[in-house]
Design brief:
Ubiquitin-like (UB roll); rod-shaped; 5-stranded mixed sheet; alpha+beta; 4-stranded antiparallel sheet
Length: 561
């Protein structure tokens, strides 16, 4: 039984482990990985490993076709039983993988689309590209200006955390997130809190955006960066000048050693006729046969092999994009559209539910605010009602005291009247008795005057309190109406009307009986009776002193005549 080996494949967001045989090919391992993660857009990706010299390289998926001479040499040099054996350069164990246990591989994007929105079909493809590009930007493998970095960070936060919610995403929420390249943070004198606030300001603008849409927006911005999707190789020209060769989806570019952003020479795929290498020498032949070939030199033959492989893969994708989609790709796009449409509908439904919930919460908050206002209004009206009731109680007590004083005054007046009658009838009594009676009458007169003064004071106080009570009654009535208004519906406040209006009644003659309530005391009549009594008593008090003085004068004249 063939000996097995353990391998670990690291994607951008997961680790996978497999057991492979000595005869497992790179293609078989690759197929196992894409099947496990559910990826169908396999043409963008590859398996990367570190070789024995410490360089990153891509695993070979297919056998390299042998030339006729090489096949003949192999047939002549091997026994008949082995004459049909193939080369093993596509086997995982036959490649220059660094010997570890388990063997380490990285599943990465090897080729990049020209337009992410047009070419990326599956969400898993989108996610893998997004994570790889974001990691390259944060590690400064792809240069990104500060302003663009902040905008990209806001899409990254939207993709990770969803919509910004002030109640959940308070200050310091992003403290543990890696948002910006360290170079950007070092370039500007801003604190981490200030950077987070800048990102949050943009993040708040993306409300309602799907996570996948946020990833797509991130890539749409990132694909315009100069270093996006470019594989750089160190080369030298014929003058031994150090340069950079950049291989990307659109062609080949030559850069100066100290500037990876601005290409000095460009070779679009559409203008390249042939690329080849011999040993360390690499040759680019333009379609225009009159144009000179571009020749450069790599440090090792292995580098030229990698350059050629990347050129072939990018050129193949370049040509494929300009042809009609295959049946498989058409089916994938149709399925993706259906899935995204279903997801969008689900999202819209969710948004409607969220909006409905927010409306309900706002309505509930309005009810709570209204209830709190009603409660405060009720407490205020209750306080006013209590105050009015206290005022009425004080008035009733004052009226009682006034009535007692009036009763006492009336009693003293009657006593004085009796004395005056006795005085009038006692013309024949002795002078001493008559003087004593006159003295008693004078004392009674003083008492009546004193009581009269007290009654007048109490009467004035009563009038004042009556006015306050009227005001209090008015406030009490208003308080009751207001209390009723905030605690009940206003339907029963309306005067009963004829609901069944009939415009056809002759001459418009309509009558309705009004109910009578004989048992109800008329407060207006009570107030009128009390006022009349007070007025009558007040008039009597005013007349009483004059009558007494006149009576005394007449009696004095009679006594001395």
């Amino acid at each position: 039984m063939p000996k097995s080996m353990n391998v670990r494949v690291t994607t951008m967001d997961a680790e996978l482990e497999f057991a492979i045989q000595q005869t497992t090919t790179g293609k078989q391992l690759f197929d196992q990985v894409v099947k496990t993660i559910g990826l169908r857009e396999v043409w963008f990706f590859g398996l990367q490993y570190t070789d024995s010299k410490g360089d990153l390289t891509w695993i070979k998926l297919y056998k390299k076709p042998d030339s006729v001479i090489k096949k003949l040499k192999r047939r002549l040099s091997k026994p008949p039983s082995d004459s049909e054996d193939e080369s093993d350069d596509d086997l995982v164990m036959g490649q220059d993988v660094k010997k570890e246990n388990p063997l380490q591989f990285k599943f990465r994007a090897k080729f990049y689309p020209e337009d992410v929105q047009e070419e990326i079909i599956q969400d898993i493809t989108l996610r893998l590209f997004y994570l790889q590009v974001k990691n390259a930007i944060l590690s400064d493998e792809i240069y990104c200006p500060p302003e663009t970095s902040v905008l990209l960070a806001s899409y990254a936060v939207q993709a990770r955390h969803g919509d910004f919610d002030k109640s959940k995403h308070s200050a310091g929420f992003l403290a543990n997130d890696r948002l910006l390249p360290q170079r950007v943070m070092d370039q500007h004198k801003m604190s981490r809190e200030e950077w987070d606030q800048s990102v949050t300001t943009w993040w708040n603008e993306h409300k309602g955006m799907l996570r996948e849409d946020a990833m797509m927006e991130y890539l749409k911005i990132a694909q315009d960066l100069e270093m996006y999707g470019v594989n750089y190789f160190e080369i030298r020209n014929k003058k031994n000048t150090e340069l950079w060769l950049g291989v990307d989806a659109l062609g080949l570019n030559i850069y100066e050693k100290d500037d990876k952003l601005t290409p000095k020479i460009g070779f679009p795929w559409s203008e390249i006729r042939n690329i080849s290498f011999s040993d360390r020498k690499f040759i680019i032949k333009p379609i225009d046969k009159k144009a000179p070939d571009f020749v450069f030199f790599a440090s090792r033959v292995r580098i030229n092999k990698r350059i050629l492989a990347l050129c072939m893969g990018n050129h193949e994708l370049y040509m494929r994009r300009r042809k009609p989609d295959t049946i498989d790709v058409q089916q994938m796009k149709a399925q993706s559209r259906e899935e995204r449409m279903a997801k969008q509908q689900q999202r819209e439904k969710l948004q409607m539910e969220i909006a409905a919930r927010e409306r309900a919460e706002r309505k509930q908050q309005e009810y709570e605010d209204k209830l709190r206002t009603m409660q405060e209004e009720m407490e205020k009206r209750q306080s006013e009602l209590t105050e009015a009731q206290e005022m009425i109680r004080r008035l009733e007590e004052q009226l009682r005291q006034l009535q007692e004083a009036k009763d006492q005054l009336e009693k003293r007046q009657n006593e004085l009247q009796a004395m005056m009658i006795r005085l009038e009838e006692s013309k024949e009594m002795e002078a001493a008795e008559r003087a004593k009676l006159e003295e008693e009458i004078m004392m009674k007169q003083e008492e009546v005057s004193r009581i009269q003064t007290e009654v007048e004071v109490k009467d004035e106080e009563t009038r004042r309190l009556q006015q306050e009570v009227e005001d209090a009654r008015q406030r009490q009535e208003e308080a009751k109406l207001a209390l009723l208004a905030v605690t009940t519906t206003p339907q029963h406040h309306h005067v009963a009307e004829n609901d069944d209006e009939n415009d056809e009644i002759p001459n418009g003659d309509v009558s309705r009986d009004l109910g009578t309530h004989e048992g109800i005391i008329d407060p207006v009549e009570d107030r009128r009776t009390l006022a009349e009594r007070n007025e009558r008593l007040h008039s009597q008090l005013k007349v009483c002193p004059d009558d007494i003085n006149t009576f005394f004068e007449e009696n004095r004249r009679e006594m001395w005549t």
